Amino acid sequence: MALRLKPKPGVASAAHMNQRSTAAAFVWSFAERIGTQLLRSIFAIILARLLLPKDFGLVAILAVFVGVAEVIITSGFGTVLIREPRLTHSDECSIFYFNVLVGATLTAILFCASPYVAEFYRSPQLTAIGRITSFNLLITSTCVVQWALLNRRLDFLAQFKVSIISVASSGILAVVMAARGFGVWSIVVQQLCSNTLNALILWRMAKWYPSERFSFRSLQKMFGFSSSFIAINLLDVIAGNISFAIIGKLFTATEAGLYSRAKQIEELPVLTTYATASRPSLSLFARSQDDDAILAQRFRSVLAHLALINFPVVTGIAVVAKPLVTTLLTAKWGSCVPYLRLLCGVGMFFPLQRINLSLIIAKGQSALFVRLELFRTIVAVAFISATGFFGVETMIVGQVIAMAITWYMNSMWIGRTLDYPFRKQLRDVSPYALGSCIMSVAMISLARLDFATQIGLLCAQVALGACIYVTFCWAFNLSAFEKVKKAAVAEILR
To answer: Are residues 488 and 474 in contact, defined by beta-carbon separation less than 8 angstroms?
Structure first.
C-alpha cells in the first residue's frame, strides 16, 4: 500500500495564504493601472475643453527635462529595493538619503536652468513654470523607498488607494482652477498636488521612517544594477519625449500642445493593449526559455493576439479622428486631427517591436536588450531631428519609419535566436492588417452620408467597423480570433 504524505497544516495554510496574497496583488495592481488611467483620461478631457492647446504645450516642452530627472530618481535604487533578496534597514536608509540628495540636486539644477530653457524656447512663462515644476523632483525623491517597500510586500491595495486619492484630488483641483481662468497653472498645480499627496499618503501607508544609519557600502553593492536600469529607462524617456522638445523649439507651444493631445489619445489604447498582453506573455516566455520550439509557438500566438486587437483599434482611431476629437475635446482641438491620424502609424508598430524585446528579456539577453534600446533611441532621435525641420506632420512620418525599422531590427535578432524571422512575423500579422484596411474603407464610406451630429457619425462608424472586422475574422477563421472566441465561450459557460 502506497503511503500518502500529508502536508503539515502550517505549511499548507502558508502556501494557501501565499496564493491568495499573490492573486490579490495581481487584482489590485490591475485595478490601480486601469483606475488611474481612466481618471487621468477623464480629467485630461475636461481640462482640454477648458484650456487652450498652448497651455498643454508649455508643460509638454518641459517633459523631456523632467522625465530624465524622474528616471534618475525613481528607476535606479527603487527597483533595487524591490528585487534585493536580503534587505537591511541600513540599506533602506542609505538609499533614502541618497535619493533625497539626488532629488534636491536635480531640483536646484532645473530651478536655476529654467530661465535659460525659457530663453532657448523664446517663452518667458517657462521660467516660472519650470521653477515650480522642479519641486516635483524633490517631493518624488522622498517617497521612493516607501513605494518600493509596498511593492516588496505585494501591498498593491495600498498603492491603489494612494493613486486614486492623489489623482482624483489633484484632478478636481485642476478642473476648478481651469474653470476660474488660471490657464496653464491649472496643470502645473495638478502635477504638484498629485505628487505631494502621493508622497504624504505613501509615508502613512508604508509606515517606514528613516533612522540616522547611512552606509556607502550599501549604495556600492546596489549601484551596478541600478545604473543599468537607469540607462535603459533614460533611453526610453529620451526617445519618447524628444519630439516635444524639438516641436517647442522649431514651432510654437500651441503646436506642442496639439501634438501632446494627439499623442495621448493614440497612446491610451495602444499602451493598454500592450500592457494587457505583455504581463502574461513575459511569464509564458520565461517558462519556456530553454525550449525554442515551444517558445517560438508561444511568441507567434502572442504576436497574433496583439495584431488582432491593436490593428483595428489604431486603424479605427485614424478613421474617426475628426468626430472623436470634436466630440471629446471640442472644435478648438481640430488642428490635431492630422497629427492623430499619422501617430496611429506609430501605434501600429509599437507593440510589435516591444513584444520582440520581451522575448529577448525572457531569454536573459540583457546586454542585447540594452544595445537594441540604444539603437532605437539613436534611430528615433535621428529621424525626428532630420524631419522636424519640414513640419510636425513630416516629423511624425519620421517616427513611423523609425518605429518600423526598430521592429525589423528586433525581429532580426529573434530570427537568429528562434526560427521566426521578420518575414514570418509579417506574414502572421498581415491578415489582421488586411481586415483592418477593409474595415476602414467601409467606415470612410459611411462618413459620406449626412449625419446630424459628429457623435452620431462616430457611433455609426465604430459600430459598422466592429461588425465588419469581426465578420472578416470569422469568415477567414483567423487563429487568434478563434482562440479568443473559444476562451470567451468557455468563460461564459463555466
So the answer is: no
Residue 7 is classified by DSSP as P
Angle between helices 9-50 and 253-287 (to 10 degrees): 160
* Helix, strand, coil % in the chain, rounded to nearest 5: 85, 0, 15
Place of cell 457619425: 457
Q: For 215-365, where are the alpha helices, taking DSSP H only?
A: 216-250, 253-287, 292-319, 321-329, 337-362
Confirm if 308 and 473 have CB atoms less than 8 A apart. Answer: yes
The pLDDT tens digits for 395-415 are 999 999 999 999 998 888 888
Q: What is the DSSP letter of 251?
A: S
The angle formed by the CA atoms of residues 23, 28 and 31, to the nearest 5 degrees, is 130
What is the pLDDT confidence band of residue 14, given thresholds at 50, 70 and 90? very low
Residue ranges per structural domain of the chain: 26-250, 253-494
**Is there a contact between 327 and 458 (Cβ–Cβ < 8 Å)?**
yes
Contact (CB, 8 A) for 260 and 56? yes
Q: What is the pLDDT of residues 446-482, one digit of tens each?
A: 888 888 888 999 999 999 999 999 999 999 988 888 8
φ/ψ of residue 405, rounded to 5: -65, -40
CA 109 to chain centre: 27
The SS3 call for residue 391 is: coil
Residue type, 273: T
Give the torsion sign (CA, 274, 279, 283, 284): negative
How many angstroms separate the most distant Cα atoms in the chain?
87
